[in-house]
Structures
1.
Amino acid sequence: MATGRYPLGQLFLMRLRALWREPSAIFWVFIFPMLLSIVLGLAFRNQTLRKLNVAVVESPGGAAVLQALSSTPGLQTQVLPLPEARQALSRGKVALVVVAGPPPSLLVDPLVPEGRTAQLLAVDTLQRLAGRTDAIVLPEEHVSTPGRRYIDFLIPGLLGFGLMSSSVWGLGWGLVQMRTGKLLKRLVATPMRKSDLLASFILSRLLIALVETAFFLTFARLIFDVRVAGSLPSFLLVAAAGALSFGGLGLLVASRAQNSETAGGLMNLATLPMMVLSGVFFSASLFPGWMQPLVKALPLTAVIDALRAISIDGTSVFTLGGPLLVLLVWGAATFLLALRLFRWS
């Protein structure tokens, strides 16, 4: 019988057929990341910097100040009474409040970056209004660097997140469904080893991950003109390593889960912290220094950092030994542990 002679190959084909016959899997693997990237890409698309709102407090000498600030590029002014101006500042509706004086004074929240920028522009304008002259006029050259848009930063993060979600949930959920449907009890009677079963899950996930990555890159190129600055094979290699690492994690969390509720809780426990800490939507370097060793040790951080390095900076895969080692350790350790803990029923 073919199953007895080539169990891994037959199980691999079984997994591919099961995925093809499940429309929801196609949606979560391909359509959902595409829709998410479209929404975020439109929200954070490149556009001219918006003007900062500045409130000028009503006062007898406020007309000249209001006129000077209104003509300053980058500022948008409105006249408000002092109580309303303070309230607008506290609620983030304005970045700065200018009390005309004399002498003029400023109300600014030092914890808001926009407030600091508005302060610099307003101080420069008010100094000029008071008679300051510039010793020199500095020439400007506007430079736009490819790959520095937010969407260029976002796409590798979304791809890493998609690889993690589809690997952990796809493999883990599939294994639990086979257990709750009593299919694993039937397979245990066949001439196969549990290593063949788990390896078939991993191999099918690897193939789907490569297709998923190629699809996502093509979509990002066509819609947002996102380009991979480095080697495309290196990019695919890192994506494959990430899928294998996450696949081992998915098998581990589902190795003994007896029902969908338990499996869902374990998979959320495994993925949600990484979704927050690993820098999917923002740089993981924003977390405090004492957290960085933990953040860097997460597989999602490793795959996102490596994908961004190749895509944005054109980094060679041979200089990404650290992230690849993290993925290798996670993948091997979780697969071997899943193999040891796995139960047929």
2.
Amino acid sequence: MKISIIGAGSFGTAMAAVAAGCGNEVVLWAHDPNVASEIEHTRHNPIYLPSIALEESVRATSSLAEAAEFSDVLFMIVPSHHYRGVLAQLRPNLRRDVAVVSGTKGIENDTLQRMSEVTALELGDALRAFAVLSGPTFALETARGDPTAAVVASLDLALAEQVQHAMSSPTFRIYNSNDVAGVELAGSLKNVIAIAAGVLEGLGLGSNTTAALITRGLHEITKLAIALGGRIETLAGLAGMGDLVLTCTGSLSRNRSVGVALGKGQPLAEILSESRAVAEGVRTSKAAKQLAERHGIDMPITAEMYRVLHEGESPRAALQRLMTRSLKAEAAL
């Protein structure tokens, strides 16, 4: 299979390594020409996953035209706030209709649209099919060959199965699904809860608190996802519970790391300025809060994280408010 990967961040680089290891030809697009040149000459991404050597079957470029020409299967792995803009730049370079596989875990803030919706609007008739790839997939562990499982969801079973067979290996196992909304929402909303998990560590709290947060976080994510068309089994699977547990507990989680620093008292602006990696949960907290309000879904953890991230609320005050809410049944909607 020939694959164009749009985005040479950590996950894009990891997917290039996985795809090449499965025998596919890959073009990896980097926004920065210097990064593309460095990958071409040294086989290493100098900024993201520098310890991972990419095979010769991975060709790096900073030309969207070259990436568009190479394949009619585009893996979009760019931050959610750049996704629409990059697609708009790609559109004039397409010579045929394309399939898009999104690895982006976020919701567009201005429109509250998922990447499937953004893709359909931007590409129109040029979009042959859409899929989303998600799951508990830290980029470094995936790229170095730690056994990893993910899910690819598409309304087009042929595309889901094509990606599943092209990208699966003894170290990377993909399951297929047709629950696009559920997989997209699970992958996006868990980042907000992951920041909260980091806050708890930053505050010096223990495992009891983290376990409660993960469980109740999954509950509120599930409520919103189902309201927006997702299925409960998806939220209990790799894209839901699996990715949530990973991102809330793993030291490689960017979102959790932001939360740890917040819990220790560091200002958000300072935290974000110190890293080139994108913590999608900061922006997603806005979209999640608005979607919850629009659909009448009670999401108390998300609401408190919005206050901490965007209104200057102290983490301890937010936690106190969560623990003193009115008592109710565990499964109460």
